[in-house]
Amino acid sequence: MTESAPRPAPGIDRDIYPMPAFVKFEAADLQATTRWYEAAGFVVLAAMPGPDGATMLVHLRRQRYQDILVVPARGTATGGLRVVMAAGGDDLAQRAADLAAAQGGTVEGPAPTPWRSTDLTLTDPDGNVVILTEPRLAEIEADTAWSDMVRGSIGRPVS
Known about the structure:
alpha/beta, 4-stranded mixed sheet, 8 strands, 32% strand, globular
């Protein structure tokens, strides 16, 4: 049986630039976690070797400024981190199917949210969560009252 190549997300950016923000996850099995994120549309931008030649850091990226660094866990991987990233036009139903075929993690959705987005929730093999979110633009544009409420909430005090 041959394994199909991962399907990268649309708009992959392989430029090298100073990252304004990123997340770092620990992995119990660096290769398995990397394969999981490749099924999620990330690409391996770099795999840096450590002093012993084994990979000590994997730099994953989807779109510009969507960077995840994965390092081998020292002891048990703690997991439990959570980050939300724009899906950037990715087909979330197809991405869910891609991840269903991958091993190790879980996927929930795509599911609508009350704030007019569709979310796909990915939990990697170590328990970290990445949510890919896509705005439902047609609904947002069609509901002017909702759009007015969003604009009116800017600067509103929290009650």
